[in-house]
Design goal:
The protein is of the alpha+beta class. The chain is built from nine helices and 19 strands. The N and C termini lie far apart (about 50 Å). GO terms for molecular function: hydrolase activity, hydrolyzing O-glycosyl compounds.
Length: about 350
């Protein structure tokens, strides 16, 4: 007798971006450098001023807003910008953002517990080049091949929304949104859900110390970057300069949500890449570790919380310890070192 898989909905609430309500949607934007912000919803032909709150926040609730509708924020100079916490950019990085309901997808991996650290055989996977189609859905058809090879985990190279059709992933502009050339958020979730069904852990490669050269507008109306550090890719993210508290809060939900769009804990792990600031570099090497606490609260955003890593079958102490996993004739680094 066959049984229908139990469906599970997952959500992580955030201060930024959109929040589905019982009736309508709440929109929030942190824009301390702007004196006025309005919300523009194209599907409703609506432009409504947002209420100004303390500490540079703007907020408005729209009862008629629904998932699938597209919107932008309008600044005091008339510029129309996408949501920095957008979950999907169907018309690329400069286009309007789409309202996504994170509870719409029904997960079937309720029993997934991940692998022990020593069981991991990682396959680094670039969605755009892994298949001819270069999409999340096409990658699903190749998972059996990886299982046959002896792979137990896939590490997906960065998928944060980038400008254009082709990119290795290190020019991400919208960090909460998977790139639309690879598919929609629910396609990514379907890939992760199927990978778990086939016994594969899923890791996500992330870039948190800089943005790509095009498509991120947050620095226009908020202190997103700092000149205290230099990177070869542009201004460093402001994790420890004036106004950095809210910047850190913007990044902190990403290890648990990020481009996965509210996947719950336990699907795998993020790892540090291209960390350039001294504080974040030290943090990524040593945290999570009881003997080496984070050097600065809020800066250690590239590792998962201890509880989450244990649900993935990885102890915090093991994640902090340098090492490598060898499989199929290749060795893949699994430390928190600056590997890119």
């Amino acid at each position: 007798m066959t049984t229908t898989p139990r469906l599970l909905q997952r959500e992580q609430r955030m201060k930024f971006g959109t929040q589905m309500l019982a009736e309508g949607v709440r929109f929030r934007l942190w824009a301390p450098n702007s004196n006025f912000v309005a919300l523009k919803i194209y599907d409703l032909d609506l432009v409504v001023p947002m209420g100004k709150l303390a500490r540079g926040w703007y907020e408005v609730e729209v009862d008629a807003a629904r998932a699938g509708m597209r919107y932008r924020f309008v600044l005091d100079d008339g510029a129309e910008v996408p949501d920095p916490a957008t979950r999907f950019q169907p018309e690329d990085v400069d286009g309007p953002s789409e309202i996504i309901d994170p509870l719409a997808f029904g997960w079937t991996d309720i029993g997934w517990r991940g692998h022990e650290w020593e069981e991991l055989v990682l396959y680094e996977l670039h969605i755009g080049t892994f298949t001819q189609e270069g999409t999340f859905r096409a990658a699903m058809d190749k998972l059996d091949h990886l299982v046959e090879l002896g792979v137990t985990a896939i590490e997906i190279m960065p998928i944060a929304d980038f400008p254009g059709r082709w990119n290795w992933g290190y020019d991400g502009a919208q960090l909460f949104a998977p790139d639309s050339s690879y598919g929609r958020p629910e396609d990514l979730k379907a890939l992760v859900d199927l990978a778990h069904a086939k016994g594969l852990s899923v890791f996500l490669d992330v870039v948190y110390n800089h943005f790509g050269p095009k498509g991120n507008y947050l620095a226009v109306y908020a202190p997103l970057t700092t000149e205290h550090y230099e990177t070869p890719w542009g201004s460093a993210v402001n994790f420890d300069d004036a106004g950095s508290t809210m910047v850190r809060e913007f990044f902190l939900p990403m290890p648990a949500t990020g481009s996965m769009n509210s996947i719950s804990t336990g699907y795998g792990s993020t790892r540090c890449t291209k960390s350039a600031t001294p504080a974040s570099a030290t943090c990524c090497r040593n945290w999570p570790s009881r003997s080496a606490p984070p050097p600065m609260a809020g800066t250690c955003i590239s590792w998962s919380k201890t509880k989450r890593t244990r649900r993935a079958g990885l102890s915090a102490a093991t994640m902090a310890r340098p090492g490598s996993i060898t499989g199929s004739g290749a060795t893949t680094s699994t430390t928190g070192s600056m590997s890119r």
